[in-house]
Request: fold
Amino acid sequence: RADGKRGEGVTIGPDETLFLFTDGVVDTRGASERFGTHRLRQTLSAHASLRPEALLVELEHVLERFQQRAQSDDTAAVALRPAAQHAHAIAMPTRAPARSLPSSKRTGNA
Reply:
């Protein structure tokens, strides 16, 4: 921090999701009121078991169904969950083994 004080850390468990959002999410206008933090909490609780990507898709659908007027504010959300220790090995794309080009291809000779 700029003031020299240390910030506090938060531990996120493997079954927990860190959810960040702009005020445009809770300020989304419905027929007679805004979406609000109560509906956001209900939506997040109802879909807490979803992967972060699916949670964001579900929130987007809920907001689209709720919204009655044009949105004038930014609406953004981020959902993050710690990856399992072995997930990087599973998610890594496989690559074909490196091959050498014939000398005629490397030099441009036919």
